[in-house]
Amino acid sequence: xxxxxxxxxxxxxxxxxxxxxxxxxxxxxxxxxxxxxxxxxxxxxxxxxxxxxxxxxxxxxxxxxxxxxxxxxxxxxxxxxxxxxxxxxxxxxxxxxxxxxxxxxxxxxxxxxxxxxxxxxxxxxxxxxxxxxxxxxxxxxxxxxxxxxxxxxxxxxxxxxxxxxxxxxxxxxxxxxxxxxxxxxxxxxxxxxxxxxxxxxxxxxxxxxxxxxxxxxxxxxxxxxxxxxxxxxxxxxxxxxxxxxxxxxxxxxxxxxxxxxxxxxxxxxxxxxxxxxxxxxxxxxxxxxxxxxxxxxxxxxxxxxxxxxxxxxxxxxxxxxxxxxxxxxxxxxxx
Length: 335
Ligand code: NAP
Description:
The chain is of the alpha/beta class. The protein has a domain at 3-190 and 218-247 and 301-315: NAD(P)-binding Rossmann-like Domain (Rossmann fold). The protein contains 13 helices and 10 strands. The strands form 2 sheets. It has a 7-stranded parallel β-sheet with strand order 3-2-1-4-5-6-9, sandwiched between helices. Helix 1 links the parallel strand 1 and strand 2. The radius of gyration is 19 Å and the shape is globular. The structure holds NADP nicotinamide-adenine-dinucleotide phosphate.
């Protein structure tokens, strides 16, 4: 039985990857940094009728060597998914150090243990901040980590991915290597933790966002992000490639409309025009962070690389939005 190490097993995307891997008959080693969260992972998998017989959880962190040897022992593949993610633009050290050091640590241990293939989770954040404003982007675009506009999260993803490609080149391809660059990931959470990116839907469905702000994102379902990881891992033609994943682009006003049409009446009815949102951003800290993106389209939805090479077939984002909205409702979060 082939074995996969998945880092950050408590995470929203990683749990779906683990679930799909176990379902497909792989053995899985999962890393967690907080031992007390082990049961959360096991319970989440059991709740979706996934046997945990072939799952082993190990305690180790991105910032420390301890525990990596045990976790990587006997693994054929590595899905390196763990990395700091937050809505707030915390200071650089919060994001960059663990992301870059963690990626390097993961790759060094993968090389040491003769892992066959590594799939690294990057982001469209490592694609969009090129320094030139345009609408459509693809896998050939790279964020400039020195751009004055770049967020600390985007910087962390860009530097970690760049460091990983450099490692693979300098070490003369010690393993097969593929990178996945998802847009905003939404859809059902397997645990009680909704995940950071579902906040985009939670704010609309609960009415925490009383008016629709003119911001657009590319969306992709978490199950399809997980399947892209597994497809990339299994498919040799993904070697040496990065894959941007977005099923479609939506504005908050589109999401609000969809939710209202499906009975979620807390979703806003009024869409703020861009000029007004820009004025509001001067007085609101949360909006200030989004100011450069108000009214802007930044899209990878036209790239077909994952479909062409991996046979990736994402579900419609409307489905994912309604599913997570229903989960949020069932959790009693809509007051
Ligand atoms: P998540 O639920 O916050 O998962 C992040 C995982 O990383 C958690 O398991 C977390 O552990 C772990 N982690 C963070 N800092 C760590 C550290 N210093 N040492 C060890 N583990 C650490 O986020 P996610 O949405 O699943 O994201 C997973 C990956 O996808 C990340 O690389 C993220 O950048 C990327 N991504 C996400 C999106 C999105 O929209 N969600 C889009 C593009 C790319 P704890 O649970 O203990 O905190």
